[in-house]
Write a structure and sequence with these properties.
This protein has 12 helices and 12 strands. The chain is α/β, with parallel strands linked by helices. It has 2 domains: 119 residues, NAD(P)-binding Rossmann-like Domain (Rossmann fold), CATH 3.40.50.720; 192 residues, 3-Layer(aba) Sandwich (Rossmann fold). Strands 8-7-6-9-10-11-12 form a 7-stranded parallel β-sheet, with helices on both faces. A 5-stranded parallel β-sheet has the order 2-1-3-4-5, sandwiched between helices. 40% of the residues are buried.
């Protein structure tokens, strides 16, 4: 049986992996994250499986190599937590799940926006306290609004289609435009500056790269429409949190819906209800009445977990056999 050390695991990870891989895998599940300090726990494994907040820097990868690890399987799409150059030098194969469920993430981003806009979360809490008043619950129609979609990969395209169904005008920005698809949708690619100035709502669907780090910062926020709504279900570091807080305080930003946060490591995915959260910016952010945060759950659907399990297990088996990983999954 293939021995795999799995890090940063939750109950749903263990349930899906144990169900699908019972006959072929000897799982060793760890709730803690993989890093240079914890890499020794991979001793005896044939491969390791990691998630978005495991830290695979050069020191970690060299430690894994010393323990005989030749394959790191990411059960996620993002890989900004992996030093790919160091992995190549160590001879470690890195695979990922590039498209587990674009529908899950796109749908969650729209759900966040609708919840924030129509104050569903606040109304829900009121009703539970038998408060049936409507004061402070005024939202706006999405129909007729302009939505700026930043990033038109699979997730961005699905989100654009959903917003089109609401009757929104769609502006698009992507480094690699898909004009044929945009034409069929009735949407327009524009420079980022024009999208920023023209959108009532800006929704982000781009990976984290040096070019997109703090894409939403002081400069861009100064150029938005006053009262713009911002949605981010991609990567936390796309947004400069300090600049975002200033925008909220000044009223330049009218609302923020986030499923990611730039310093989420060690906070998201954890139950900290009995502890004091030490991140002052996060505490300030979630204190605004026009901010809604979920803890990186956009991917969390049955369909997505099925796909993550299917692709991850297939790659683990193929690499162990000396074969090739599934197309598009090797980094």
């Amino acid at each position: 049986m293939l021995k795999v050390a799995v890090y940063d695991t939750k109950s749903y990870d263990r349930r899906y992996f144990q169900t699908e891989g019972a006959d072929s895998f000897d799982w060793k599940f760890h709730e803690f994250r993989l890093s240079a300090e914890t890499a020794a726990t991979a001793e005896g494994a044939d491969a390791v499986c990691v998630f978005v907040n495991d830290r695979l820097d050069r020191d970690c990868l060299e430690a894994l190599k010393s323990h005989g690890i030749r394959h790191v399987a990411l059960r996620c799409a993002g890989f900004n937590n992996v030093d790919l150059d160091a992995a190549r030098q160590a001879g470690i194969c890195i695979t990922r799940v590039p498209a587990y469920s674009p529908n899950a993430v796109a749908e969650h981003s729209v759900a966040l926006l609708m919840t924030l806009n129509r104050k569903i979360h606040r109304a829900y809490n009121r009703i539970r306290e038998q408060n049936f008043s409507l004061g402070g619950l005024v939202g706006f129609d999405l129909a007729g609004k302009t939505v700026g979609i930043v990033g038109t990969g699979k997730i961005g395209q699905i989100a654009a289609r959903i917003f089109t169904g609401y009757g929104c005008r769609i502006l698009l920005f992507d480094k690699y435009p898909n004009y044929e698809w945009a034409g069929m949708l009735g949407a327009s690619y524009v420079p980022l500056e024009d999208l920023t100035r023209g959108a009532d709502i800006i929704s982000l669907y781009v990976p984290l790269t040096p070019d997109t780090h703090h894409l939403i910062g002081e400069k861009l926020l100064r150029e938005t429409r006053k009262g713009v709504f911002i949605v981010n279900t991609s990567r936390g570091k796309l947004i400069d949190t300090a600049a975002l807080i200033n925008g909220l305080k000044s009223g330049q930003v009218g609302g923020v819906a986030l499923d990611v946060y730039e310093e989420e490591e060690g906070i998201f995915f954890e139950d900290l209800s009995e502890r004091i959260v030490q991140d002052d910016e996060l505490i300030r952010l979630i204190g605004f009445p026009n901010v809604l945060v979920t803890a990186h759950q956009a991917f969390l659907t049955e369909e997505a977990l099925d796909k993550i399990t299917e692709v991850t297990l297939a790659n683990l088996i193929e690499i162990a056999r000396g074969g090739k990983p599934l197309e598009g999954t090797r980094l």
